From TrEMBL:
Keywords: Repeat. The keyword Repeat applies. It comes from the Eukaryota. It comes from Adiantum capillus-veneris (Maidenhair fern). GO terms for molecular function: RNA binding. InterPro entries: PPR_At4g14850-like_plant (IPR046960), PPR_rpt (IPR002885), TPR-like_helical_dom_sf (IPR011990). GO terms for biological process: RNA modification; system development. This is Pentatricopeptide repeat-containing protein. PPR repeats lie at residues 209-243, 310-344, 481-511, 512-546.
Length: 748
């Protein structure tokens, strides 16, 4: 066996230099010249003895063999050229083991398998599908299908183009596919959305690595097969040892989808055991999972375990507080992040503005607005939409208009935010005007636009405008959309067009829980209490689980003296099905008994609930006393509420003014209205003004009711004119009644 030759760096450099200067004879050169060039090449003194021996053996074989002499295009010459490239890459600087004489061509072919990247083939496989097919055909002709690395490149190329039939043919032709080959096939089937085929390949594997498991778990997570993903993760943990950070990120995303806090906490324990709790990506995903489950304490724990903080981790924590409408804490975190020297991104600002809007923190919102505008001449569309939404919810429609004009882009999201802000601030006609302006500008309207303008049409109770919008919805092809259909049902029910609402409901292809809720509310507003309860039962027969809003809506539909028995049945069902009731359901039960005239039952439920710090529950009790004409009890309840130091809201005074109206307490009602009008914390609603007109009318003060209409700080709508018409009819004032009727007709 030849002695081992180890070249120094200088000798290697010389050898490489000479090799670069040598030129391989082209295919047009005569064969004898090629052999001469080969002799000169093999006798070069710069090569180590072992390699010279190999080349001389190759030359002797070419001369003595009875086979046709190889040309530069044959497989042997291709192998030789591949070996030369290998030498040029420095792969031959290692020991060359010659345990016995072997066919030099085979030895060189073995050496070429060490070549981990053929530049020409790899680059060709990165081209089009046709280039890939041509390159594959060339590899078959050249006999390169035994090179697992190159075949894996072909598999990857076919998988990228989605031609899995070609990939399968290549894979089936491999004598011993590597684990990379299996993973490539699994990934290819996942890319063409054939997760079941990918699972078949997965089950056929005898050996799997972490990439194999992660690929399939990710596919299950993305295709909303959450239970399969968790089951596969459990199998991986038992069979293959510890997962990595990618695995944990995927299974935590699955827990977020399922809102499975228990499983998420178990995975958190495994993460801590693997030492990945300080990882930014894993920790941020943990925060998001806990935020979806409304577990802020655990989200904070995961946040503080991070080794360092970036904008993504801060944004995740701020979004967690924004979800639970904790605007003060979210804004405090926003300031702390900036103090740490981390600049917020677009998502951070949007999440903080959303949290601020829910808590009506106008001053903090203006502070963020000033920071955003500093140094920027034009607002970003997404941030501009968030600012408009914040100003709209905080009652500052003027600033919302300024932001809308500052954005200067006809983006649908900005127009949707401005229309929604107008609806929030009872500027319904301005919202409808914006809708028509958008049509004139050729704006591409979406389902959110239609939902907002339909809400505005419903609130002004204008059936004709709503019918025009419905026609436009059909023309644009948005009628099958569930959100738009739900809004149409609500619109028609508020306009007393119950038959049209039923027609929309029956035309829908699928029903969500919101759809059932809207239709139950429509029956309740139409006075069809029994049908509302029957629809509630039918919903459960369709295996649709009612949520708290659905239950509260069904109870509201029973809030009539003729539907007291149905209301009691619902109360019994709730007692059996729900162990814990939220504030909306509790107040709906009290409100139902109060409006049915069963004040004793309402007060009994009110006391039994024992959650007296909830303003919604107090509002329901005050409204119950008001509806029963017990103004004195309503006032006592209000004074007790003030003694509990609970923050009052707008609806507290709607119930109180209604109680004063029913009891004929004019002075007390006027005092309450003046308090609301001068308050900085309670927003004046149109319902308050309607209660004052009803108060004057019931007291026989028709002139005061008429003059009050001109003093209302809103544009008078149908509700206001209807209240004036009702009191005019009660007192036989035909002139005032006719005038109010004419105003109502102008609204369509």
């Amino acid at each position: 066996m030849p002695a081992v030759w180890l070249a120094s760096r200088k000798q290697n450099f010389r050898r490489y230099t000479v090799w670069r200067e040598l030129k391989w004879p082209s295919a047009t050169v005569a064969h004898d010249d090629s052999i001469k060039a080969l002799y000169a090449f093999t006798n070069s003194s710069v090569w180590p003895p072992g390699f010279r021996f190999m080349l001389q053996h190759f030359q002797t074989w070419c001369c003595a063999s009875q086979w046709p002499r190889p040309t530069p295009t044959d497989k042997s010459m291709h192998s030789f050229k591949s070996a030369s490239r290998l030498c040029h890459a420095g792969a031959c600087s290692r020991d060359i083991p010659f345990t016995h004489l072997q066919t030099t061509n085979n030895y060189i072919s073995n050496m070429t398998s060490e070549l981990q990247n053929e530049p020409d083939i790899a680059s060709a496989l990165q081209g089009s599908l046709r280039d890939c097919q041509y390159t594959h055909a060339y590899m078959v002709e050249a006999g390169l299908t035994g090179d697992v690395f190159l075949v894996n490149l072909v598999l990857r190329a076919y998988s990228k183009f989605g031609t899995m039939s070609d990939a399968c043919a290549v894979f089936d032709g491999m004598p011993r596919p590597s684990i990379i080959s299996w993973n490539t096939m699994i990934g290819g089937y996942i890319n063409v959305y054939s997760v079941d085929e990918a699972r078949l390949f997965f089950d056929r594997m005898f050996q799997r690595n972490v990439v194999t498991w992660n690929t399939l778990i990710t596919a299950y997570a993305r295709h909303v097969k959450s239970k399969e993903a968790l089951h596969l993760f459990q199998r991986m943990y038992l069979e293959s040892g510890l997962p990595n950070d990618v695995t944990f990120i995927n299974v935590l995303s699955v827990c977020s989808q399922l809102v499975d806090l228990k499983t998420g906490r178990l995975i958190h324990v495994l993460i801590c055991g693997c030492g990945l709790a300080s990882s930014l990506t894993v920790g941020t995903t943990l925060i998001n999972m806990y935020a979806k489950s409304n577990d802020l304490k655990s989200a904070h724990f995961a946040f503080h375990k991070l080794s360092q903080y970036d904008v993504a981790s801060w944004t995740s924590l701020i979004s967690a507080y924004a979800r639970l409408e904790k605007g003060e804490v979210a804004f405090d975190l926003y300031r702390r992040m900036q103090q740490e020297g981390i600049q917020p991104n677009k998502l951070t600002i949007q999440s903080t503005l959303s949290a601020i809007a829910n808590k009506l923190l106008l001053r903090e919102g203006k502070a963020i607005h000033s920071c955003v505008c500093f140094g920027d001449s034009r607002l970003d569309v997404d941030i501009g939409s968030a600012l408009i939404n914040m100003y709209g919810k905080c009652g500052s429609i003027k600033y919302a208009w300024l932001v809308f004009k500052d954005v200067k882009l006809n983006a649908t999201s900005v127009w949707n935010a401005m229309i929604a802000a107008c609806v929030d601030q009872t500027c319904y006609w301005q919202a409808l005007s914006l809708y028509y302006q958008g049509l004139q500008k050729g704006l591409k309207l979406d389902e959110v636009t239609f939902a907002n303008v339909l809400s505005a049409s419903a609130l002004v109770v204008n059936l004709n405008i709503g019918l025009l919008i419905h026609t436009h919805i059909v023309e644009e092809g948005h009628e099958p959309d569930v959100v738009v259909s739900n809004t149409l049902i609500t619109f028609y029910s508020r306009c007393n067009a119950l038959e049209d609402a039923i027609a929309v409901f029956k035309k829908m292809r699928s029903y969500s829980v919101v759809t059932w809720t809207c239709m139950i509310a429509a029956y309740g507003q139409g006075g069809l209490n029994r049908q509302a309860v029957e629809l509630f039962q039918q919903m459960q027969l369709q295996h649709v689980k009612p949520n708290d809003v659905t239950i509260a809506t069904a109870l509201g539909a029973c809030a009539d003296s003729i539907a007291l028995e149905e209301g009691r049945m619902l109360h019994v069902w709730i007692s059996f099905e729900r162990n814990v009731l939220n504030s909306a359901v509790r107040s709906a039960i009290v409100n139902m008994y109060g409006k049915c005239g069963a004040l004793a039952d309402a007060f009994s439920v009110f006391k039994s609930l024992g959650v007296l710090e909830n303003i919604v529950l107090w509002n329901a009790m005050i409204s119950g006393f008001a509806y029963g004409g017990h103004g004195g009890e309503a006032l006592l309840c209000f004074f007790r509420l003030q003694g509990e130091c609970i923050q009052l809201d707008e609806f507290t005074f709607v119930g109180l003014l209604s109680a004063c109206s029913h009891a004929g307490m004019v002075d007390e009602g006027i005092c309450c209205f003046c308090y609301v009008a001068s308050s900085l914390y309670i927003r004046l609603l149109l319902e308050h003004c309607v209660c004052i007109i009803d108060l004057f009318g019931r007291a026989g003060q028709l002139a005061e009711a008429q003059s009050f209409v001109y003093k209302v700080p809103f544009l008078p709508d149908v509700c206001l004119w209807s209240a004036l018409e009702a009191v005019s009819r009660t007192h036989g004032d035909s002139v005032c009644g006719k005038w109010a009727s004419e105003q109502i007709l102008e609204f369509g």
